[in-house]
Amino acid sequence: MATIRDLKIGQAAEVFTVGGEGALRQHFLDMGVIPGVTVQLIKYAPMGDPIELKVQSYELTIRLADAEKITVRNIHDPEDIGRSLVGISSMPDRRDPFESEFIDHPGLGEGGRFHDKKTEHPLPDDTVLTFALAGNQNSGKTTLFNQLTGANQHVGNFPGVTVDRKDGVIRNHKNTLVTDLPGIYSMSPYTSEEVVSRQFILDEKPKGIINIVDATNIERNLYLTLQLLELNVPMVVALNMMDEVQSNGGSVNVNKMEKLLGVPVVPISAAKNEGIDELVDHAIHVAKYQEKPGRQDFCSPTDNGGAVHRSIHAIMHLIQDHSEESGIPVRFAATKLIEGDKSVEEALKLDQNEQETLEHIVKQMEKESGLDRAAAIAGMRFEFIEKVTASAVIKPKRSREETRSNKIDRILTGKYTAIPMFILIMAVIFYLTFNVIGGNLQTLLGTGISALSDTAESAMKAAGVNQFLISLVIKGVFTGVGSVLSFLPIIVTLFFFLSLLEDSGYMARIAFVMDKILRRLGLSGRSIVPMLLGFGCSVPAIMSSRTLPSERDRKLTVIMIPFMSCSAKLPIYSYFISAFFPKQGALVMLLLYFTGIAVGILTAVISKNTRFKGEAVPFVMELPTYRMPRAKNVGQLLWEKTKDFIQRAFTIIFIASMVIWFLETFSPSFAMVSDSSKSILAVVSGFIAPVFAPLGFGDWRMATALISGFLAKENVVSTIGILFGSVSALQKVLTPATAASFLVFCLLYTPCIAAIASVRRELGRKWAFWIVIFQCTVAWVCAFIVHLVTLAFV
Ligand code: GDP
Ligand code: MG
To answer: What is the mean pLDDT of residues 401-415?
Structure first.
């Protein structure tokens, strides 16, 4: 039997069976790769793996190994490559043109339709109307959320998981609260995003759901809609990107779709701020009057001989009482049970007999329909969606955006151009961030902070403030917090570019291009961006790891990031190179960068085979159409990051700075010292210094430098400068050989406090602690090896 792997570029075929198991398989099905659907092979990634497929009306990447598990038949060359008619709903001719006319804003809002269904008891006026905002990735969720809430947002984490949680009050509607759920394709419990969304709706019971649907990609987006409807929570569908659909000659018969789905459908353009008010009115209305969806029954007695239909309804009857007890909506529970969802099974507490009955019903359904349980349910949903789109949607022939995307992709993911373009784009971003924008701003901010610090110092001296306080403010606050704050411009600039990459759709392409390399490390293509950012600064790099889809990938990536030579390590390198290796500068620099990368890779490979066994998450990812990022989204994100960073600078970093200042300023008998060699820090360093003796730098001053480097890596150089006084004094203590092992130690040992704080935020306290220990150990071992090697050969 032929598989997707056997397709040639441009060829299309009908999916026959979808192999594999568990999460990966469910994910395929949820993304619309189901038996009977037409897929077309668009291209191979430059390294030959993964591949880009066209399914329904969107593009998807999968790995070759996974493509092999999907068998196909009826391979053919479609006459028009890339036409958006590839897909299951390609029967445009049966439609009545009058029915399909696009109705701009149905304007049915408060008066007509809804009042027929209105319950007599609206929720009391003081109830907070809570909404969940749910939708696929790239459907415009962030844009809509920003339009709905304006500046009234609050960002946090979902309890227990590091997935962003954004809440906000709808503009001009007090007593409302919208929660932005993570972008998901399905309500399967496989990714942490899906689990979060599902739990949020089931446990926190929002008063309503706002489901955002990308109208340019309607089949796949409605797949989630059907599952949300099964939850039996009041809901409105926001049909987004209508501007694009219309300008390309497509249209949607909103009334018809509304009737078929049983919930209000409001066409909007989040980016152009059109239709938002109607959306809000409808959302508030359904929530206030608790209007449940008018329809949940998407199966039909005529499809596939009705096998799926009969099994769903049989199971609904079977579990009715358990569903009521556990509070899981019955239709949702039934379809999830058929899909084989273990967590629903447990929550329902079915007894032995019922479980067996359930399995019998499912077996019978599989036998009658000829499909396995998961594929049968996915097929049922897509069949209904096909009916909806066939009667309510006129698809644009081929959109301008799609044509443009294909053109851009010819270069950005082209066989010979993809990697050079990637390197070029990253180089430009780094150049602009570290040299032009970030660098200059950082210098400016640094100068500003030190000027402020000088002014404060002389003012305090003039006012006769006691020395203790002066030292606290100047050394503790200004030096400590100031040195970290001066990173702010770099971080904001990096995030600016990062959000451009993400919002434009290029990030998905980078993952597509780099997946093959990263796979060897047990990671997926998506980890490339955080790792690259690590060469700039670990803080935004670690923060950006949150875009990774699985916990495992996130941890592995975060462990690797600090081994990359961040820009703060550069001053150390240059200082030591000019002191010890003036002739081999470039070589030493290169070796250091390379060592960092090599150690990172080694760590990944070892972890992959030990602590992080198993595969990276299935790399089934949508390649969204390129779109111009909105200034508003980017601005909002930068503001969030800035706020977040400043908050941290003044909490955790502030405290850490105070502690180090304290240790450096007081002697063990708590008297203030002017000579830091008598301070607690020096005494402590004296204790620690012997640890470094085997590495060749057991001097207490070197130990002090390393400890102060914990605050910020540049501090290593400034501390050495203060404690030694001159380069020649340093040259008396170290040889080129011991300098080399010191450099290696600096490269690898624990990242600065700001980075550790980010690790803590992303992965928790325990992980932050272990990463510090792990990295110091690795640094020690590597420096020791370098020392041994240099002793033997130099
Ligand atoms: P999210 O991933 O669901 O949060 O989607 P975003 O809000 O980041 O939007 C994805 C892309 O679609 C961005 O480039 C937006 O500018 C764009 N976009 C969002 N809404 C619309 C819309 O109504 N019309 C058009 N043409 N583009 C939109
Ligand atoms: Mg978004």
So the answer is: 91
Distance 234 CA to ligand 1 centre (A): 25
Q: Domain containing 74 — which CATH number? A: 2.30.30.90
In a domain, 308, yes or no: yes
> Which whole number is the average pLDDT over 273-279?
96
SS (HEC) of 488-533: HHHHHHHHHHHHHHHHHCHHHHHHHHHHHHHHCCCCCHHHHHHHHH
49 is in an annotated binding site: no
191: its two tokens: 């990714």
Q: Are residues 284 and 307 in the same domain?
A: no
Cα–Cα dist 540/301, whole Å: 54
Count of structural domains, the chain? 4
User: Is 150 labeled as ligand-binding?
Assistant: yes
Which atom of ligand 1 lies at the shortest distance from residue 139's CA? 3
Q: How many CB atoms lie within 10 A of CB 406?
A: 16
Ligand 1 atom closest to 138 (CA): 2
Among 51, 71, 86, residue at a domain's last position: 86
Q: Does the beta carbon of 141 lie inside 6 Å of ligand 1?
A: yes
Regarding whether 651 and 701 lie in a shared domain, the answer is yes
Question: Which atom of ligand 1 has the smallest separation from the CA of 502?
Answer: 8
Q: Do β-strands 176-180 and 129-135 pair in parallel, antiparallel, or remain unpaired?
A: parallel
pLDDT at 432 over 90: no
What is the structure's pLDDT at 408? 95
Quick check: CB of 211 below 6 Å from ligand 1?
no
Among 262, 288, 314, the domain-final residue is: 288
Whether 583 and 682 share a structural domain: yes
Tell me the chain's radius of gyration from C-alpha atoms: 30
Residue 269 resides in a domain? yes
CA of 429 to the centre of ligand 2 (A): 21
User: Which residue would you say has higher pLDDT here, 675 or 696?
Assistant: 696
Question: Which domain does 367 fall in, by range?
Answer: 303-371
Atom 9 of ligand 1, residue of closest alpha carbon: 140
Whether 321 and 426 map to the same domain: the answer is no
**Sheet architecture: strand order including 70-76:** 70-76, 12-18, 38-44, 51-55, 58-62, 621-622
CA of 85 from ligand 1 middle (Å) equals: 23
Q: Is 632 in the pocket of ligand 1 (CB under 6 A)?
A: no
Question: Which tops the pLDDT comparison, 425 or 502?
Answer: 425
Name the range with the highest mean pLDDT among 156-165, 254-263, 478-487: 254-263
Any ligand 1 atom below 6 A from CB of 166: no
Contact 170, 280 (CB under 8 A): yes
181 neighbors 196 (Cβ within 8 angstroms): yes
* Ligand 1 atom closest to residue 505's alpha carbon, by position in its atom list: 14
What is the pTM for the complete model shown? 0.83
CB 269 near ligand 1, within 6 Å: yes
The verdict on the CB of residue 270 being under 6 Å from ligand 1 is yes
Q: Is 739 within any annotated ligand binding site?
A: no
User: What per-residue confidence (pLDDT) applies to 168?
Assistant: 94
Phi–psi pair at 621, nearest 5 degrees: -140, 145
Q: What is the pLDDT of residues 335-355, one digit of tens each?
A: 999 999 989 999 999 999 999
Q: Are both 348 and 233 inside the same structural domain? A: no
115 lies in some domain? no
Helix (H, G, I), strand (E, B) or coil at 59: strand
> Is residue 240 annotated as involved in ligand binding?
yes
Give the confidence band of 99 by pLDDT, cuts at 50, 70, 90: very low
User: 241 labelled as ligand-binding?
Assistant: yes
Q: Answer with the residue of higher pLDDT: 135 or 305.
A: 135
| CA–CA gap between residue 142 and residue 631 (Å, rounded) | 12
Residues 261 and 354 in one domain: no
Is 409's C-beta closer than 6 angstroms to any atom of ligand 1? no
Q: What is the pLDDT of residue 338?
A: 95
Q: What is the predicted pLDDT for the residue at 104?
A: 42
In this structure, are 558 and 707 located in the same domain? Answer: yes
Q: What is the pLDDT of residue 96?
A: 39
**Is 217 annotated as belonging to a binding site?**
no
pLDDT of residue 107: 38
Please check whether residue 94 lies inside any domain of the structure.
no
Distance CA 665, CA 125 (A): 60
Q: Does 739 lie in the same domain as 608?
A: yes
